C-alpha cells in the first residue's frame, strides 16, 4: 500500500490557527531583534564621546524602545486572543498545544512580556 498525502488537507480553521501562530512567531523574532538592537545602542551610547553621534543614538534608541513597547502590547493581545478562542475536540487540543508552545517560548525568552 502506498501512502498518498496529496489528498489530505488541513481544515481551514486549523490552517488559520497555524497562520496566526506563525505570524506571532515572526513578531517574536522581530521583538527579539529589537531587544538586541536596543542593547547594542545602549552600549554604544555609553561608550560614545561624540555629542552628535550620541544624540543620533539616543533618538534611534527612543524610537526603537517605543516601537518595541508597542509590539509587546500587540503580542500580548494576540496571544491572549488565541488563548481565549476555543474549539471542540481534536481541533481545540491542537489550538491549545500551539498556544502553550508560544507561551513557553515567551516565558523562556521574555518572561515579563505576558505580564
Q: Counting H and I runs of at least 4 residues, what is the number of helices? A: 3
Q: What overall form do the CA principal axes indicate?
A: elongated
Q: What is the string of SSEs from the N terminus onward?
A: HHH
SS-derived structural category: mainly alpha
Percent helix: over 70%
* Approximate strand percentage: under 5%
- Domain count, please report it: 1
The oligomeric status of these chains comes to single chain
Task: Report the count of strand segments.
Answer: 0
CA-atom Rg in angstroms: 20 Å
- Mean pLDDT over all positions: 83
Indicate the CATH class. Mainly Alpha
Contiguous uncertain segments of 5+ residues = none
CATH topology: Methane Monooxygenase Hydroxylase, Chain G, domain 1
List keywords for this structure.
115 residues, mainly alpha, Methane Monooxygenase Hydroxylase, Chain G, domain 1, 3 helices
Question: How would you characterize the overall build of this protein?
Answer:
It is a single chain. With 115 residues, this protein is mainly alpha-helical. Helix content is 79%, strand content 0%. The protein contains 3 helices and no strands.
